[in-house]
């Protein structure tokens, strides 16, 4: 009997050798996944549009460079605090994209993870609203201690919101890559932003002209954020109806540390993605100035609720309308042309802002910046999806997202210091110069991945 024992042992070893741990580059049943995507494309397209309509409408009330910066400035009276709050929000997103990648990279289905991270992100908006109602009061008569407590609470909720936003950033985009074919992502993304922009514009005008102006429920700003929470929840319900196909191209299960380590080989092995990675992070230095646009406008005119509503509406309408055009352009020619156009427009808006003297000039700036900002953000996220194999999408999203978020974390903090020490003009000039460098890198060194070798 002992002579026969090596036989089974050898057989088991051969069996283990024949089944490698890592999946093949492109599994043979990838065509089956593509057929499943095509079969449910209409349903998933409608769900993506509904999720974008409600989800983005609510989040834009919080992320707009108007309402929250103005509220924090009202409570604190400090440009530095406004920059610090946005920096800490972005700081929460620095490492969490890697967590998102490690959570979904090995899963055949990850809709549940996407819904959980999105729900936790929405709960932070509810926390911001409650902090305003309980501690803020949003009036100059509020006791300083309560106003300070409100500022601290809002910053804490923003930080947690950033953390879960980093996870959702990866899971949401990876899910979209699974359910929407590459040649339809641009127009669908543009349509999402267009519909959300129209709705956001109307809601923002009402929020500024009526809710904030009338100080609804004792704190108009907190009421706006409570409204934002409710609207985003409708979008989450819509997302839950997604038909998610079973993935066939997967990475081995990895911890967060192993996911971090996987970034290096991807960057070394894909030079085009590496250059895009650097350029996108550098271009994101625009976030350094984002919270201070409205505060600069406040040095030229009084920031009433109606004016905040008007400028937010202009920003959202410009972004949503332009995104429809950017999306169609990306589907036809690829995302590089969109990134170049939007980044050039963003640089031009900073130059124009230096010569603004009245409300008309501020409106023109928000048109230019709004047209550029949304298109740049979406094209950057979508272009990441096209550089390598599908199994690496979560890691590419996490790596690029973490770099952008790191810049977003440091940027507003540095911007606040610059405003406090040298003024707004120096901040806008510095931002425009950094983005111009990124524009040159993308033009010269980054090929369009859709038509190049992968």
Poorly predicted spans: 1-28, 138-142
User: How many angstroms separate the termini?
Assistant: 54 Å
The biggest sheet amounts to:
none
Classify the beta-strand content into a percent band.
under 5%
Element string (H = helix, E = strand): HHHHHHHHHHHHHHHHHH
* Portion of residues within helices: over 70%
Q: How many DSSP-defined strands?
A: 0
Output the structural class.
mainly alpha
Total DSSP helices:
18
The gyration radius over C-alpha positions equals 23 Å
Mean pLDDT: 78
Gross morphology is globular
What this model shows, in words?
With 454 residues, the protein is an all-alpha fold. 76% of the residues lie in helices and 0% in strands. The chain is built from 18 helices and no strands. The protein has helices spanning 6-18, 30-39, 41-63, 67-76, 79-91, 96-104, 111-136, 144-179, 185-212, 220-239, 256-269, 271-283, 293-298, 305-333, 335-353, 359-384, 393-421, 424-445. Mean pLDDT is 78; it is low at 1-28 and 138-142.
Set down the secondary structure blueprint.
Elements: H1 6-18, H2 30-39, H3 41-63, H4 67-76, H5 79-91, H6 96-104, H7 111-136, H8 144-179, H9 185-212, H10 220-239, H11 256-269, H12 271-283, H13 293-298, H14 305-333, H15 335-353, H16 359-384, H17 393-421, H18 424-445
Helix pairs in contact: 3-9, 3-10, 4-5, 5-8, 5-17, 6-8, 6-11, 6-17, 7-8, 7-10, 8-17, 9-10, 9-14, 9-16, 12-17, 12-18, 14-15, 14-16, 15-16, 15-18
């Amino acid at each position: 009997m002992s002579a026969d024992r090596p036989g089974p042992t050898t057989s088991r070893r051969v069996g283990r050798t024949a089944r490698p741990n890592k999946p093949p580059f492109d599994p043979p049943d990838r065509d089956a996944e593509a057929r499943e995507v095509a079969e449910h494309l209409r349903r998933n397209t409608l769900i993506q549009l509904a999720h974008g309509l409600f989800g983005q409408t609510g989040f834009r009330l919080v992320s707009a460079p108007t309402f929250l910066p103005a509220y924090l400035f009202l409570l604190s009276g400090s440009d530095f605090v406004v920059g610090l709050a946005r920096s800490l929000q972005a700081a929460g997103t620095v490492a969490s994209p890697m967590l998102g990648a490690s959570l979904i990279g090995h899963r055949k289905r990850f809709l549940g993870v996407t819904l959980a991270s999105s729900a936790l992100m929405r709960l932070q908006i509810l926390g911001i609203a409650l902090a305003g109602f309980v501690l803020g009061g949003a009036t100059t008569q509020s006791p300083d201690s309560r106003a300070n407590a409100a500022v601290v609470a809002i910053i804490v909720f923003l930080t947690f919101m950033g953390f879960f936003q980093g996870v959702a950033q990866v899971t949401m985009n990876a899910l979209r890559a699974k359910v929407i074919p590459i040649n339809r992502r641009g127009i669908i993304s543009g349509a999402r932003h267009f519909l959300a922009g129209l709705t956001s514009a109307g809601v923002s005008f009402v929020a500024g002209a009526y809710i904030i102006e009338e100080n609804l429920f004792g704190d108009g700003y907190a009421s706006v954020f409570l409204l934002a929470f409710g609207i985003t929840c409708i979008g989450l319900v819509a997302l839950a109806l997604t038909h998610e196909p079973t993935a066939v191209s997967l990475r081995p299960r990895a911890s967060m540390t192993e996911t971090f380590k996987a970034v290096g080989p991807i960057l070394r092995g894909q030079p085009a993605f590496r250059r895009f990675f650097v350029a996108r992070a550098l271009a994101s230095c625009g976030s350094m100035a984002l919270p201070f646009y409205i505060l600069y406008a406040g040095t030229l005119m009084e920031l009433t609720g109606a004016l905040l509503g008007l400028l937010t509406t202009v920003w959202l309408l410009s972004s949503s309308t332009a995104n429809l055009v950017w999306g169609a352009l990306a589907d036809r020619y690829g995302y590089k042309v969109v990134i170049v156009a939007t980044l050039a427009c963003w640089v031009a808006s900073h130059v124009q802002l230096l010569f603004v003297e009245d409300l008309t000039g501020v409106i023109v700036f928000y048109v230019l910046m709004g047209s550029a900002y949304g298109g740049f953000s979406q094209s950057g996220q979508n272009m990441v999806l096209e550089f390598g194999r599908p199994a690496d999408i979560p890691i590419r999203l996490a790596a690029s997202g973490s770099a952008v978020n790191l810049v977003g974390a440091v940027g507003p903090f540095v911007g606040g210091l610059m405003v406090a020490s040298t003024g707004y003009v120096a901040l806008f000039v510095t931002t425009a110069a950094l983005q111009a460098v990124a524009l040159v890198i993308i033009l010269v060194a980054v090929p369009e991945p859709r038509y190049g070798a992968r």
